[in-house]
Amino acid sequence: MKINDLIHPALICLDLKSSQKDAALTELADLLFRENKIRHTGEFIQEIWAREETGNTGFEGGVALPHARSSCVLSPAVAIGISRQGIDYGAEDGQPTHLILMIASAEQASEAHIEVLAQISSRLVEDDSVSQILACQDAQAVTDYFCQSSEASTETISAAASRGLIIGVTGCPVGIAHTYLAAEMLEKAAAEMGYEAIVETNGSIGVKNAPTGDDIARADAIIVACDKQVDLDRFNGKKVVITGVKAAIKDAQGLINQALAAQPYQAKGTAKTQASTTSVRSQLYKSLMNGVSYMIPFVVTGGLMIALALALGGVPTPSGLAIPEGSLWNQVLNVGVVGFTLMIPVLAGYIAYAIGERPALAPGLIGGWIANTGSFYGASAGCGFIGAIIAGLLVGYFIRWLTHLSWHKMLLPLVPIMIAPIAGTAFIAALFIFVIGAPVADLMAFLNHMLTNLSTGNIILIGLVMGLMQGFDMGGPFGKVVFMFSVGLIAQGQTQFMGAQAAAIPVAPLGMALAAIIGRRFNLFDDEEYENGKAAAAMGLVGISEGAIPFAARDPLSVIPANMIGSAVACILGFVFSLHCNVAHGGPIIVLLGGFDQPLMALIAMGSGIITTAAIAIALKRLRMTKKQQFLVQPQA
How far is CA 87 from CA 56, 68, 99, 601, in A? Predict the structure, then answer.
């Protein structure tokens, strides 16, 4: 494979129309799609953003290297975009980015393909490379720049050095761009300083150019610029500096000087760097995002159809909004319920798929259905989206372990299509039915008993507990326990509990919709979340709390606490205002239908909870983003 197999004029845009990072990435992905290099733009962009979550791919000097390995890549390629005015890509030097190389690699990238990417990286480390590319008058000139041999730089880097030996170790989570660019920078810096260099690369094709024991023994210093776990014990007693892969790209000479002045490294036997933790978190995040991305169409389609049916065909009754049997809106409702029923299994299935690939899909879907169906394990309600996440992760890692066992060659063809799916299904079914199910059923019985005991006590306390439960899982088992408890009291003539509950029900989806609208201005929410916010707003208006699930699944540590606190505020105010509601439903639609005895106070309670949720979600997201940025830019010693 040669460079011109990956780069050719049809994949080069000399003047990007986009001025924002997200739009520029989409523009380049569309270019790859038009040239039949990827199967689907949206799926590939999702992988690109998953990589961006582990660390911004923009560098000093106006260059960015967004990249991803994806099953939707039909043929490996590099799309090049030039922005004359510059794009705010988030580079560490704060300067605009003018050159973007979007790298599309297949999940199983060949060694030849990775070697070509390394050659492309070597062209980018040359002095004035960006200005030379920007000076090109046509796409063919850009192609020629990358395809011409770089003999001069090769001679410089391979020149004999007498000062000593520097060893480098590079690696990034994806292993197709930063890994090799960092290696090139270390080799170039070492040569300029008069040192010989051996740089081990931990890329998608495995470990290459690993130093021998003799190499390590004679090394003057070692730089581990890696965002994945590597063996550090072999460097015991040597001068070592440990940092992220971007640090080597930003200031390779500074790292070498830092390593030469470092204290001898003391091995800890089972040393694990912060970078390895980042890699694990990245893998979990990527798996969750895969499940969420496939779940969202079901949430939106099912939720909006249910919302439409309830808004236009619903009639308030003591048992909730009812739609006449046999009517058109009843059929619309039934179709929407199908979409909502499928969203939880789809979430679990595609989380499992992201970890264990195709053999994990069927058991993940089945496991998600079981997790969401309480009758399998004697519970009054299923485990909701939290159970789906648990099922997806368990199935995914179980299937990954199973498929990596040493199988007889006669059985090997049966593993992905029969053995793994059947074993995975049996595993997750048995786990939920015989292990997880009983504690869940007991927990729900305990929660119902607790609410019964609290119902005769302090209204602030019962409001706090009911609100926290409602906001925790957004229509899941905790929310269902509270809802059924309030519905049961309506039959006894006690409607105040339903009044407080009805005020809390729409807080999560409407609060996250508001947070997405405001937070987008601070780059806390991406375009996909902004669009999800619109659907969540529509669902929240008609009392469908599941509209907030995509936000919670994407960032549970920020979203769930915000939902819980906001729902608690609304529920407490519902009791304080002595709201009464004789309709077993919630949201502004019940206000419009006359279900509340105090419509204005009901809206005030809801609004207070919504604003609280939005404010806390934005604050937590900003805090997490700040900590993440500090982690990415500080050396990891």
Answer: 14, 20, 9, 47
Active site residue 67: yes
Report the pLDDT value the prediction gives residue 257, as an integer from 0 to 100: 92
One-letter-per-residue 3-state SS of 52-112: HHCCCCEECCCEECCEEEECCECCCEEEEEEEEEEEECCCCCCCCEEEEEEEEEECCCCHH
Residue 541's identity, in one-letter code, is L
Closest of 397, 405, 402, 602 to residue 504, by C-alpha: 602
Closest CA to 121 of 199, 43, 19, 47: 199
Q: Which residues of 236-246 are buried (b: 16+ CB within 10 A; e: fewer)?
A: eebbbbbbbbb
Q: How far apart are CA 174 and CA 105, in angstroms?
A: 10
What global pTM score does this model have?
Answer: 0.51
Residue of 13, 98, 113, 172 with catalytic role = 172
Strand partners, 97: 87
What distance in Å separates the CA atoms of residue 470 and residue 448, rounded to the nearest whole number?
A: 13
585 is catalytic: no
Furthest-apart CA pair in the chain: how many Å?
A: 91
Among 8, 67, 113, 580, the one annotated catalytic: 67
Whole-number Å distance between alpha carbons of 249 and 267: 26
Measured CA distances, 492 to 447, 483, 486, 488 (Å): 20, 15, 10, 7
Count the residues in the chain: 637
- What pLDDT, in 10s, does the model give residues 537-575? 988 888 888 888 888 888 888 999 999 999 999 999 999
